[in-house]
Specification:
It is built from 9 helices and no strands. It is mainly α. It has a domain at about 120-203.
Length: about 200
């Protein structure tokens, strides 16, 4: 079974968008709850605002079909989280049409096309699936060791997956670390502390 066929079978029985929205709701809800534990109320404003926006927005998308007509239209028209899947389905249809027309391809050519249709960089799973997985992993790692340390690791993994030049990945990782450190310094939020490791912080 090719990776394309396996992905198609999994995607038919697994709603990626609903899964991602549930992850966003749980993650933002947890982050929002944690802001009420901050010792400095001013430091909680930005993360509380961000968590509220993500939490409410994800809830609206998840339960959009139960919303009143005008609000439902506004929410559904503004949501384009998985446009990549629509493009993937269009490519599937084009491939099926080519096969029906009797297009001859070798096994290596077919495998290469499968990889290209799954990922823009030839990876074995769809880019949207990887994005959902790495976002979940980033949240979990940030909880475990602290957002300050999880951010550059997230950028490095993301850059490696999408085959960015090493120097560019390194620069982006440094920028991500600097941004997280800036938030920690300005807002007074202990982003260098994790709940499982580095609980005492580093800075």
């Amino acid at each position: 079974m090719s990776s394309k066929s396996l992905y198609r079978r999994l995607s038919e029985g697994f709603d990626q968008e609903r899964f991602l929205l549930i992850v966003l709701i749980l993650g933002s809800g947890l982050a929002l709850a944690e802001t009420f534990r901050f010792e400095i109320s001013a430091a909680a404003r930005f993360p509380r605002l961000t968590g509220t926006v993500v939490f409410v927005g994800a809830l609206l998308l998840l339960f959009s079909k139960y919303l009143p007509g005008p609000l439902r239209v506004a929410v559904e028209e503004s949501s384009s989280v998985f446009e990549a899947d629509e493009e993937f389905e269009e490519r599937q249809q084009q491939t099926a049409e080519q096969q029906q027309e009797g297009t001859d391809t070798t096994e290596s050519d077919t495998a290469e096309k499968d990889r290209n249709e799954l990922s823009t960089v030839g990876r074995p799973i769809h880019d949207s699936v990887f994005t959902g997985l790495i976002a979940t992993g980033y949240a979990a790692l940030g909880f475990a060791i602290g957002i300050l340390w999880a951010t550059p690791l997230f950028v490095v993994v993301y850059g490696y997956w999408f085959k960015l030049p090493r120097y560019l990945t390194a620069v982006l990782a440094a920028i991500g670390f600097a941004i997280a450190y800036g938030f920690m310094s300005v807002l007074g939020v202990p982003l260098d502390r994790g709940e499982l490791f580095l609980t005492g912080g580093v800075f």
